[in-house]
Amino acid sequence: MSIHFEHSVDVARTPEQAFAVLDDFSMTPKWLKRCVHLEPLLPGPHSVGMKLRYDYRDGGRRGTMEGEIVERAPSERLKMRYSDEAMEVTVDFRIARTDSGARLTHAIDITPKAVMARLFSPIIRSQLPKQTIAAMETLRGLLEAV
Question: Could you give the CA distance from residue 106 to residue 78 in angstroms, rounded to a whole number?
Fold first, then answer.
């Protein structure tokens, strides 16, 4: 069973500016605390199907997930899917123009695959909102400081 959470923030930046930061994977560790490194596996422009490597830190544990861009509409949407032996994670950013800038909505779906990951589902479910909100607030601060 999938664990889902989404959160929106309004930023005083255009959708184009917000998308540029999300699409610049070298910026991800600056707003996503768990992220150590995110990179495409091959050079070239970001596009649907591009393979990604996501290195993360979870407490004292480090891990890697392989992923890919599954949807990309500049200034509107960036959706990626990551997987490892324990779980599958879908990260979806939607961007909408507002009178004062842009609204960013971050939706995340986590599907535990391994037995241990399923056992930890209640903990994941309880921590996901706090982690997502913190990431979005850090992203808002980063965007508005640029």
Answer: 10
